[in-house]
Amino acid sequence: MNVRRLIPATAVAGAGALGLMAVSACTASGAAERTDDGRLQVVASFYPMQYLAERIGGDHVAVTTLTKPGVEPHDLELKPRQTAELNDAGLIVSLRGVQPAVDKAIEQAAAPHKVDAADLTELRHFDGGGHDHDHGGHEGETEAEHAEHADEPGHEEHEDGTGNEAADPHLWLDPVKYAEVAEGVGAGFEKADPAHADDYRKNTEALVAELTALDAEFEKGLEKASTRTFITTHSAFGYLAARYGLEQEGISGVGPESEPSPARIKELQEIAKKDRVTTVFFETLASDRTARTLADDTGLATDVLDPLEGITDKSRGDDYLQVMRANLAALQKALGTS
Predict the structure, then answer these.
(1) Closest of 138, 98, 135 to residue 117, by C-alpha
(2) Would you list the DSSP string of 12-51?
């Protein structure tokens, strides 16, 4: 299990420095676009970036998001109005690798300041089954042994559209990494709107403190689990699993709509029996059909584990912190800690 729990000062400082590097000024004057009442106009790509922008920006910003509640962010196609919003923004906050159409539009947008969360922390690679490529995929295996496992069921690669294996973008599900990103986003706000830098810094510090507390809650809440394996529809929880010593087994890959092979379903049935899995998790923004079918075939319960790609009326909470605590409660129940 990962023994690093608190967010070290070096990581915070490093993320802040990265944040300054990740902010690009595209106009000669560097003046940020503002609303009629003088607030910095910020566009966020989807909910995890929206939450950071709102918490850090506070009363000094007007935040809009490209991905409306209930919309699956991975498949978002931008309308002309949304492209115009990007060009009119004073600051864009996004995460490269989640939404290909958005990534392309942001690259071409004329906004004077842009912060990409993918540049603010180290991203990791997980295969379609949720296993950690950066640490060998199978515990203790060499690179050669890892290559032998590449064709096994459930070990499909997540590609970036160029044939190259892409890093998993779901970093916000690890409170420690999300805090590192918050530091970088805060630095971006300070550069885009120096007049309110002190407030942005205070807001960032407050948010990081809350994320540090959330990390401690997850660590304490999961340390005595009777099983450490969970099955989920969408392999979005690799960072969370790696942080707290859990093993994610995804029915589909990193993309929520990919279909599992019959061999993968059979493998999951065997894993469930061997690892005493009690629950198959599904989510709020994607179909639960495959998860429920697997649960019915294996006699397992079903429950929600929310990847927090958006907040809807079906979400177990009104914001990031509330939904993450609901996720913790669901994991505790499924893993035998409560």
Answers:
(1) 98
(2) HHHHHHHHHHH----SSS-PPPB-TTS-EEEEESSHHHHH
DSSP 3-state assignment of 248? Answer: strand
Report residue 261 as tokens.
Answer: 């092979």
Tell how far CA 320 is from the center of its chain.
11
Res 139: pLDDT: 36
Q: What angle do CA 151, 155, 158 make, to 5 degrees?
A: 115
- Cα distance between residue 268 and residue 94, in whole Å: 34
SS3 331: helix
Residue 180 in contact with residue 15, Cβ under 8 Å? yes
For the cut 60, the answer to whether the pLDDT of residue 145 exceeds it is no
Query: Is residue 162 classed exposed, middle or buried when 0-12, 13-18 and 19+ CB atoms within 10 A define those classes?
Result: exposed
Structure letter (DSSP) for residue 76: -
pTM, to two decimals: 0.81
Number of neighbouring beta carbons within 10 Å of residue 326: 16
How far, in Å, CA of 97 to CA of 325, rounded? 26
Q: Which of 208, 170, 213, 177 is nearest to 55 (CA)?
A: 208
| CB-CB contact of 249 with 271 (8 Å) | yes
Our CA angle for 270, 273, 275, nearest 5°, is: 100
pLDDT tens-digit readout, 72-111: 898 889 999 999 999 999 999 999 999 999 999 999 999 9
Residue 281 backbone dihedrals phi, psi, to 5 degrees: -90, 140
Residue 234, pLDDT above cutoff 80: no
E runs forming strands in the chain = 40-44, 61-65, 91-94, 114-116, 229-232, 247-250, 279-282, 301-304
Neighbours of 290 (CB within 10 A): 18
